[in-house]
Fold this sequence. Notes:
The chain has 255 residues and is mainly α. It has helices spanning 4-31, 40-53, 55-87, 89-104, 111-118, 122-147, 150-158, 163-200, 205-215, 219-247, 250-253.
Amino acid sequence: MLNPETRTARWATYAVSVLGGAALWELAGRRANPAVAAPFSATLQRLWEMIETGELRASLGGSLALFTAGFGIALFTALPFGLLLSRMRVLRVALSDYILLVNAMPMVALIPFILSIFGLEFGAKVLVVFLFCFFPILYNTIEGADSVRPELIEVARSYRSGEWAIWRDVMLPGTFPYAMTGVRQAIGRGLVGVVAAEFFLSASGIGQLLMTSGRNFDTAGLLATVLVITLLGVALMALGRALEDRFTAWRGLTR
């Protein structure tokens, strides 16, 4: 655990870094063509206008619902599927090439195919976000499950633990830190999936806000929307890190 002096120094470094970045943004925005970039102050002013009018709240609400649905489905399918592939080698060998093939495809390139099958409904956009989120969680879960020492499984079996008990008491605790790394990666990719789905399927949410700002040459509004997406991603990944630290505190005791 960090002592107060170290924590203060770290936050001071963060503050200086953020203020320096904002100052560079402001300086570059004032010197650039208004159609290309906007100063940091103008971006914040436009962001406040979007909040006051309710424009941001309405767009962000729809995008968060889409992200939550796609990410949630990916999380609750990739975790058990990754553990299953790790425990059942025959199934893993049979499906690994297909999983690798789908993962290697550019997900954006699959959107027209999804559109032709599922149309413009909410479920189609959820599927896009799901595909963006699924594979980082899956691969990290498999890596974590493979890292569990065989001796631990043998000890569990020596105490007559069944397969479910091995999953619950050995596989899940050993896999969780790796899976959380995949979750943090999936958060960033999921936000990209949200924007892509709202761009290429029915325009809505944050994607529609980006499109509208771009068409109207509202550079400050465009940058404000990008800033909101960035801050949302940072906040969600910080939440994932906090959950990982909370539920893997035992790792520090075993080192």
